Structure formats: structure tokens, C-alpha cells
Amino acid sequence: MPAQACDSHCHIFGPASQFPFAPERSYTPEDAGFDMLHAMHQRLGLERGVIVQPNCHGYDMSAVVDALRRGQGQYRAVALLPDNVSQSEIARLDGEGVRGVRFNFVAHLAGATPDNMLSMAERIATFGWHLCIHTDGSSLLALLPKLQGSGVPFIIDHMGRVDADEGVHSASFQALLSLRDDPLAWVKISGVDRLAGGHSPYDKGHGFVRALVEHMPDRLLWGTDWPHPNVAGPVPDDQELLNLFCALCPDAALRERILVHNPQQLYRFKDANS
Description:
Largest sheet: 8 strands, parallel
Distance between the termini: 21 Å
Order of helices and strands: EHEHEHEHEHEHEHHEHH
Strand order of the largest sheet: 1-2-3-4-5-6-7-8
Strand content: 5-15%
Number of helices: 10
Number of strands: 8
Structural class: alpha/beta
């Protein structure tokens, strides 16, 4: 891996004895705390990570903030925030290393509305934060115009979770590719196993990765999605996912762009060369 390579989409769960799960959670995962995450990153040669607040912890950011402090500047985070969050709380989280807010529009985690999202965009704009959007093919097309009018950067998680059976020429995936013309739009190459229905080596997802790398490498991010909550089929092997990305993006300069320089820009990591 190149120096400062980043896993731009991962989670931590608990440990519940220290960071209890939210009573209103929609699922209860096994413990997967920061020590486990950091050990996985070390095995893969990844020096940086972006921790996305999971639904099972709700709005309690305690576990993530603890991880950011322990990560010594090599980790950033994306929050879940209530509509009535104060500007002082956003400022506090910004100081800890949070750089965006996530909204879930997929069926099993639904709860967000476009109005919630656009209202939050106004709140976070002054901090240079972005919107992180977890959507799927059925909601993507309706959301994109609203996101493009939000005035802040936005990321589409897991390649939009488009329907792989519809292929790369589907309306939803072509809309995703069209984001190359929007300087505020980013896409995560993550969840290839989800697109492929959980069947390794995830052949059904390969064409989508290749198309994104070809069309918009300057605004792509790669992530493991560790520890892979709510997956269909066996839990993916993170080394296999990284190897697959490298195989589908064989150009070393493009890999470095996606793994190092793009997350450096969006999450505002301290430049190791400065």
C-alpha cells in the first residue's frame, strides 16, 4: 500500500460494556471496537481510516470520539446527528475530527427525509463538512437533484447500492457516472460484495468498479465497510476486498489517487509532508 492509504468507510461497534448500543437500534451487532479495527488496518497496510457512525449507536458519538482521540490524527469520522443539533456541538465534533453527516435512505435503516438533509446542509456548510448518503437504486434518482442543489459536497456510499442485475447501463448507475461533471460529488467504491449478493469473488460488481475508476477517479474513495453489518452471505474478507480493488484499478497512480490523495482532500487529514 502507498503511504497514508485510507479505508474511507468503516464502522466500530462498542464494545457494548463501554459504549452501550442505542435502545431504539434496528440491529444488534457483535462487539467490534477500535482495537479490532486498527489491527485490521495494520494487517492490510492502511494507515488511515474514516469511521462512519453506525445506526446501532444512534446519535451517541462517544465510541467514535474515543476512537478519533486514540487514532492520533490518522482517523476521521462521519456522524449521525439529530435535526436539532446545536452549532456548538457541530463545532465540538469538528474539533475532534468529524467531517460529515450521514443520512440513511435504504429501507432497513430509513428515517431520513430530503428536508432533513437539506436543512442539515445549511448547518454544516460553514464547517466545510459534507453529506454522506446511504441510498439504493430505488431512491438514488430522486435524491441526486436535491443533493446537487444542497451547496455542500456529498458522497454516495457503496456505489449507490444499484441493482447489479440491471447492469452498468441502468438509469441509476448512469446517473451515478454523470456525477463526474459535478465538482461537489463523490462516490465510494465500497460494498462491492453487497452489489454482488454476497458471493465471492463478487463478479457481478466488477464492471461497476471499473466504470467508476474510468470515469471519475479524482472523486472516488475506497472503503472496506468493516465489520460488514447486515450483509447477505458470508462476511467478506477485507484482504480479498483490497486485492480486488487493486486488480480492478491496476494503474498505481490512480490507486494512490483514490487511496491517499482523495481522502486527504475531502477529510482534511494533516499532510504528512508538511
